[in-house]
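Let us work through a complete example step by step.
Step 1: write down the sequence.
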Amino acid sequence: MSNKVAFLLKKIVAKVWGFKKIFIQEATIATIKPKGASKGYVLVSYLISPFKGNKITITNNHTNEWECVKIVSLFVEYGYTVDTISFSNNSFIPKKKYSYFVDIHSNMERLTPYLDKNCVKILHITG
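Step 2: predict the structure and record it as tokens.
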């Protein structure tokens, strides 16, 4: 992806998806909040790299960062606070009541026992 295309994508993400400018960054989790009141919580086990710092950054030529940002943005758009962790994070233990859980790899089996029985679990199969 050229630098010009990456720059345009970043501008689209910032303006169109309209994330609230509050990102809580810890070593293993990024929390993205909606502009208004939150309807609940969503856990996404995919990538954390696009959400480091105070802005969204798509840094590679692979579609995975774009996909992850889009998944998160849809939940935020519908009013949910989204916690993102890396799919390779095998130590995170959920402490919130999540309404939805999206995973791309192997955290589904590991984290399901910690999730509320009414949590909707979505496996986004990427390979």
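Step 3: interpret the result. Residues 63-77 form the longest helix (15 residues).
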